[in-house]
Amino acid sequence: MMSTVVNDTSTGPHVAQLWKTRQDKVRTQWSSxxxxxxxxxxxxxxxxxxxxxxxxxxLTNLTLLGPTSVHWGFSGLANxxxxxxxxxxxxxxxxxxYFIGGSIVGVVVLGYVLASLLQRASxxxxxxxxxxxxxxxxxxxxxxxxxxxxxxxxxxxxxxxxGMPSSNFLDAQPLLIxxxxxxxxxxxxxxxxxxxxxxxxxxxxxxxxxxxxASSWQRFRLIVLPLMRPTIIAVVLLTxxxxxxxxxxxxxxxxxxxxxxxxxxxLYSYQQAFSFNNLAYxxxxxxxxxxxxxxxxxxxxxxxxx
Amino acid sequence: MKVSFMKKSTMSKVLAGTAVMAMAAGSAVVxxxxxxxxxxxxxISIAYASDTTFDTTPLAYKWWGQVKKExxxxxPNVTVNLIAVHGGEPDFLTKLALDYHNASSAPTLAQFxxxxxKLYQSSGYLMNMSPLLKxxxxxxxxxxxxxxxxxxxxxxxxxxxxxxxxxIYYDKAILQKAGVKLxxxxxxxxxxxxxxxxxxxxxxxxxxxxxxxxxxxxxNGANYGILNxxxxxSNPAIEDSSGKMVVSSSGLLQAFNFYHEAFADGLGAPTAxxxxxxxxxxxxxxxFAKGQLGIAISANFIGGNWTKQVSFPYWPQASTAMGVxxxxxxxxxxxxxxxxxxxxxxxxxxxxxxxxxxMNFLNIAQDSTNLIDAGNWAGWVPPVKAxxxxxxxxxxxxxxxxxxxxxxxxxxxxxxxxxFSTWVQGIEQATGAIAEKPSTTGAQAVSQLKQYVTNQLGxxxxxxxP
Lengths: 306, 466
Fold this sequence. Notes:
The complex is a heterodimer. Chain A is mainly α. Chain A has helices at residues 2-8, 13-21, 30-57, 78-85, 87-120, 123-138, 141-152, 157-161, 169-172, 174-199, 203-211, 216-244, 247-253, 265-275, 279-304. Helix content of chain A is 75%, strand content 0%. The A-B interface holds A 63-67, 69-70, 82, 85-88, 149, 153-155, 166, 168, 170-171, 247, 251-260, 270-271, 274-277 and B 8-11, 90, 94, 97-98, 101, 116, 119-120, 122-124, 214-216, 270-273, 275-278, 418, 421-422, 425, 429, 432-433, 436, 451-452, 455-456, 458.
């Protein structure tokens, strides 16, 4: 009966009428704009305007001190041209990529392993180990930085335990150590998220696979991994964003050194703006970080909305 | 002034400054003279770094409090608003720079490092103090090198509150064990290396020679380290007459070669200490007190660190256990040291009534007792030469204070240009490279400095000298 009606009205003005009344069509209620105005206003004041100003600052000659701290103005593409040939910037970008990449791999693997082991652990062990890991995650970056600094330098905890008290791991492998410190401080978050995702995997699927004689690796690869894919991707992107913004940890541990070994973009931006007084150039490097974060952010939103 | 090593150790963004209060319009202040009293209310604000300038924060409060109290008793119609800025030196400098941006937040008087004077002056933030200093009894007693610290184009924009210079400290017992004749007075750089090698042989567990290296200690790490060697080298130039930064010279090569020789022979301190971003490990006063260090090229304030007031650490035996001497120049003719300090500058936004009130404040701050107290508590050599032999100064950290007073005339000022901080970063990275990888030669270190500074400042802002 329904199909007859549709067929009867498949041409002419009826189609337009039906389309207008369809419930799955995106509709605009103009009154909603009024309700959204406060949120839009806040977004503009707290994000869009500062962002636009930061972009503009990156194209000026503003300095913290000196003649151009007072009489400053638009300098065109000068800072961008400098950025292109700034070997320290490119070096810093690669250092940042290593720091973020290493952190992602470490956090995801360690977080999954811990979550998986705790699924099978006794309640007591789950509470104790889980608690310790979460405390590490909740620890302020300054405390985590000091802890790792004290542990990895000469006469520190790690070198003493290994029977090599004079070994200075932080200076020997600075980027590796600060990356490990970041992994250590973020694994708790990953473990919690992974643990929740693991608990949501239907036991029936695992049992069925066992009945079919699937090996542990096959169960992990063909059942667990596909079901946890959205969670893993979310953790990867959040770890990337949080690592990109992790200024304090490295600043406390190495201040970007020795030399420029751990000088990730946030530290280089700070150094340019406040140590060398180049506020505009520091702002430009900050804008590059915003671009990188935006890419990760868009990916996160797209994946989260699936 | 132990905490000055920490001057680059933390970050904080700037809050709005507490600032200059409007004073009564058309005020007519009775100027100068003992017991002079302002006819109408004037307010002045004074910004200082509470946690980095003096050896301890309580000592900073004590000194500023006592000067304010004396001033209030003498000038009851002037309101003094002391602005204690907390945090490390970078935090203080950032806050001050942003406060200076607006007339409403600019402090009438501020105390800042001498390396900032040109930057503030070129920004138009500082008042020409020359007319105010005419007839000043204390400023007239400054040695020329210190007078010139704030002199730009013939006008004085800042006056010294105290100075830091450098020399050589040595542990007498360790040198004796190493067979070095006391009192030790090295005539050349080679004498220093020879003594350090003898220490290494006689006392293998002792650090033979402390040389600051790397970027962890901030710009002062170079001031208290390699820049002293550069000052005593065949070409001590940091910038040329046109203001270009020197990135290659025979002087730089000499200084880097000394570092290479020291670290290649295993004479330097471990990088765990040198590269520590925290304050304590990169200051040699603790190592000396523990008997773990033989020789150090370091700043005048180390002697004060061993006093009870500072206790960093308290080491009453230091006066007899330690010796101090000047750093010889490379060619053995005289001594060499950098000179940097903290200065007072008046805001260009200050009214004439405020400027007069500030000068009256400085007259009290710079009287002999307050000036020496500041020197003792902040680890400075007082800028007035007559104070170098006053018992209040010499007895505080004997014999170190007196010795560094004697060495001050051999010192030379470090620049206060915008590009200096970038250049310092480059030279510290190069010394850090030598400390970390002692096979790095002096020539390679010069090349690293050149590459870094040229990349940061552009080829038009740097130069190479013979």
